Amino acid sequence: MTATPRWGITLPLRSLPVPEQRDIVAALPDLGYTDAWSSELNGADAFTPLALAAQWTDRLRLGTAIAGIFTRGPALLATCSRATSRHPAASANSGRTRGRRRSPA
User: Fold this and answer.
1) At CB < 8 A and 24+ separation, what contacts does 1-10 make?
2) Is 10 helix (H, G, I), strand (E, B) or coil?
3) Per-residue model confidence (pLDDT) at position 28
4) Neighbours of 70 (CB within 10 A)
5) How far apart are the C-alpha atoms of 39 and 45, rounded to whole Å?
6) Which of 49, 53, 83, 100 is the most exposed place for a label (fewest CB within 10 A)?
7) Residue 10 binned pLDDT confidence (cut-offs 50, 70, 90)
8) Higher pLDDT, 85 or 10
9) Are 52 and 25 within 8 A, CB to CB?
10) What are the pLDDT digits (tens) for 21-79?
11) Higher pLDDT pick, 102 / 2
């Protein structure tokens, strides 16, 4: 069985302010990109670019690469992750594996 290659890009792009990246992000799937990742670096947070990307296209898998755990409490991290992953247009991956829920015995 051959794995399907996945192509990713890191958001936000450094050359433009985040709101001006809409057309570029919307075109990424047509250019062959399958994933968009974000991290917290140089003053950008990891979640805002992903929330915007989820609004601009529903054809990318979204995920965080680095999100500072010491600048947020566990409840806030969980809330951000849950809000991003529940967006109807995209699935989110915050570096955790998804397991199946067990049904009660």
Assistant:
1) 6/34, 6/35, 6/61, 7/32, 7/33, 7/34, 7/35, 8/33, 8/34, 8/35, 8/36, 8/37, 9/33, 9/35, 9/36, 9/37, 10/36, 10/37, 10/38, 10/39, 10/65
2) strand
3) 97
4) 5
5) 7
6) 100
7) very high
8) 10
9) yes
10) 999 999 999 999 999 999 887 667 888 888 899 999 999 999 988 777 777 778 877 77
11) 2
Binning pLDDT at 50, 70 and 90, where does residue 101 land? very low
Q: Is the pLDDT of residue 102 over 60?
A: no
| Strand ranges (E), the chain | 8-11, 35-39, 61-66, 92-93
Tokens of 79: 């809330």
The answer to whether 46 and 66 are in contact (CB under 8 A) is: yes
> Which CA distances in Å does 31 have to 9, 28, 59, 60?
11, 5, 12, 12
Query: What residues contact 52, with CB distance under 8 A and at least 6 apart?
Result: 18, 19, 21, 22, 25
Cα three-residue angle 96-32-21, rounded to 5 degrees: 80
